[in-house]
Amino acid sequence: MNFSRFLIPIGVVLFIAGAWQQYQWAGVAVASGAVVMWILLHFTRMVTVLSRAANRPVGHVGSAVMLNAKLKKGVNLMHVIAMTKSLGERLSAENTQPEVFKWTDEGASFVTCTFKDGKLTQWDMTRPEPAEADASQTTL
Asked: Which residues on neighbouring strands pair with residue 116, listed in sequence order?
């Protein structure tokens, strides 16, 4: 179960209630400002990551091997998009769980990532056979 769905709003309410307890309305104003700043920081990061990803081809990554080495279980999809600087190619049906995305590099190696509730659960890297890689390099 995703406890952050409940803990973050409860934490915000407790933070503002504590500010009220200590400093009355001035504390509420400062605490509310801090909460709004925290929300804006997350929003700005999301917009920055997505704007960088919008300028790259869907499902492309510089090196599938490096992506495979950097991935960790439990990171969210936004973190993986920030690492690859590209939106993943969706392999699963829309609005279904788990979500499966694929990133491919120039050498036709690719990483397939599975996300459950937005968190990375597993990934698999596939490299082409040497004969296939040689054939793809000669056609370029």
From this structure: 119
Contact 101, 122 (CB under 8 A): no
| Contact call for residues 59 and 87 (beta carbons, < 8 A) | yes
Measured distance CA(118)–CA(99) in Å, rounded: 8
Q: What does the angle CA 17 – CA 36 – CA 75 come to, to the nearest 5 degrees? A: 100
Q: Which helix (H) or strand (E) holds 12?
A: helix 4-54
107 φ/ψ sector (left φ>0, alpha ψ -120 to 50, else beta): alpha
* Helix, coil or strand: residue 60: strand
SS3 52: helix
Span 59-118, pLDDT tens digits: 999 899 999 999 999 999 999 999 999 998 999 998 888 999 999 999 889 999 999 988
